[in-house]
């Protein structure tokens, strides 16, 4: 079954106007450090939007998180951690069926859906 933008299940960010898949909305809006929250209605439901005195990093392109091996900077720790695996060679996501491995979960999940559906 298709997901995200291709399935028609989309959401438009009220801050930047960007249209993304509904499943990615929390990740998109939770891209800033915060101490307080604001409820933002979506359809008949609401979710908690992190707010801060400065705009979310997604919208400012701020990248305060440095790679510990090179000069590259990141807006999120997940991005930095995935990148650092290119320096260390760590590939923690392994397919037990064909013995391939990946440095990030989305690529592993994509492999499983494409080559081993239903497992």
TrEMBL record:
Keyword DNA-binding carried by entry: no
Occurrences of domain C2H2-type (ranges): 65-92, 93-119
UniProt cross-references to Pfam families, sorted A to Z: zf-C2H2_4 (PF13894)
Subcellular localization(s) per the UniProt record: Nucleus
Record carries keyword Zinc: yes
Principal subcellular localization: nucleus
One GO term describing the cellular component: nucleus
GO MF term list: DNA-binding transcription factor activity, RNA polymerase II-specific; zinc ion binding
Record-linked SMART domains: ZnF_C2H2
Keywords: Metal-binding, Nucleus, Repeat, Zinc, Zinc-finger
Protein known as: C2H2-type domain-containing protein
Upper lineage: Eukaryota, Metazoa, Echinodermata, Eleutherozoa, Echinozoa
